[in-house]
Automatic annotation (TrEMBL):
Residues 9-74 form the WRKY domain. It comes from Trapa natans. Gene3D superfamilies: WRKY domain. This is WRKY domain-containing protein. Its main location: nucleus. It is found in: Nucleus. Residues 97-118 are annotated as: Disordered. GO terms for cellular component: nucleus.
Amino acid sequence: MADQGNIIRAPDFPEDGHEWKKYGQKLIRTIGKHRSYFICQRANCKAKKRVEWSPLEPDDLKVVYVGTHTHEGPDQAGPGSISSVDANRYNLLTQVLGDGQWQSPPDHDPTGGQITGQ
DNA sequence: GTAGTTTGACCAAGA
DNA sequence: ATCTTGGTCAAACTA
């Protein structure tokens, strides 16, 4: 079909190497951006991913990982090696795609029980 | 025929 | 008690 340049569509999201299944998309009015919902299709993997981007600035991509991959990376996928949890032991990861700029952290704990790395 | 994707509607929580 | 938003599920369509 001729791409209707009018309808907003998810831009080319960066490949994480994992298999994500899109299960929903919504426009968040509070931030005025679109948000797509993805879930890892890997068995035993309950990791979820959210991608939000500005309808007018597809360059501002923000990928938010929720949950953790119970399986190793896309290269190993070892069911018996759940050591990956050691790297993803936290439940929320936020990455900014594009310019690598964070919109504006409300000022959470910079090192309080967050991803302090250790 | 399968897989993946899309849209709409429903539900729940919070203010 | 009401309204709005966010999140998820199901069904349908296309490639």
